[in-house]
């Protein structure tokens, strides 16, 4: 059986981890607490990631480098810039390359990073979109769980706001790719209605196999994303894979197969979210680190997926989508 030549992980909170005080250039000291590092990504042949600019409103974010006052657009902007500047410093140090063009996906670099803004409150107004785009942001999710000035989130339901609709138009003008993960149902409906462009779900699983939280995608939402040419990234957080029990590698594979049964195998990909607010011990055994992703590939091979279909899941589905939507 041929292993995938490489992997693309569609959702890693690299700057968030760094601002937490973790040295991503060093090996992880305790693999039960954290698993993501640049050495671990290299061992796992993870050559491209969607690296987030994650900002958090509300009480838990207060006083943190990524937190901001929900009523203060400037504090959200500053929190976003703080993470952007970490990526830029890492690029200057030769540790990664920010992907701004399709050619950057082919560049010789230790790690290629597509910047994904998770929660759009750092965009103070639609006029800010051009500034963020010029600095490298190519994918935007309008909100994190708690909602934003732009959209309702999976834990704070509601549709797009008036500002959100204006921001969507500005994102479309700059060919920025929309990320549906964390959108409330009503917000995703509004996004689909007001934008004709491709939508992805960078790190979302299937509501049919987990529970009724709006954090997961309904079958019709999976179909709608696929119809736009989008992809759905498998989230490895155990509570998003199985309800009321410890999740297994089989559960993770079941979500991939369910998406494939609706959208086709070429719309399935990885968005692990590893270390994104949970420890490796909350991930199914066997895929608790970036250098264990080959276990997913082996499971798909056992399920009859061809070499090309498994290569698509590992990296090509993301690569194809990014090149055709948001990279010049």
CATH topology: TIM Barrel
CATH superfamily: Metal-dependent hydrolases
Given the C-alpha coordinates, what overall shape results? globular
Q: What's the total number of strands?
A: 13
* Average predicted local confidence, pLDDT: 97
Proportion of helical residues: 25-40%
SS strand fraction: 15-25%
Domain unit count: 1
Radius of gyration: 18 Å
Structural class based on helices, strands and sheet pairing: alpha/beta
Write the H/E string, N to C: EHHEEEHEEHEEEHEHEHEHEHH
Instruction: Please report the first level of CATH classification, the CATH class.
Output: Alpha Beta
Distance between the termini: 35 Å
Low-confidence stretches: none
Biggest sheet, in brief?
7 strands, parallel
Number of helices: 10
| Corresponding CATH architecture | Alpha-Beta Barrel
Question: What's the helix and strand layout?
Answer:
Elements: E1 7-12, H1 14-19, H2 38-43, E2 46-54, E3 56-57, E4 67-68, H3 73-92, E5 97-98, E6 112-118, H4 128-134, E7 137-141, E8 151-153, E9 156-160, H5 162-173, E10 177-179, H6 185-194, E11 199-200, H7 219-227, E12 232-234, H8 249-263, E13 268-270, H9 294-302, H10 307-325
Parallel strand pairs: 1-2, 2-6, 3-4, 5-6, 6-7, 7-10, 10-11, 12-13
Antiparallel strand pairs: 8-9
Helix pairs in contact: 8-9
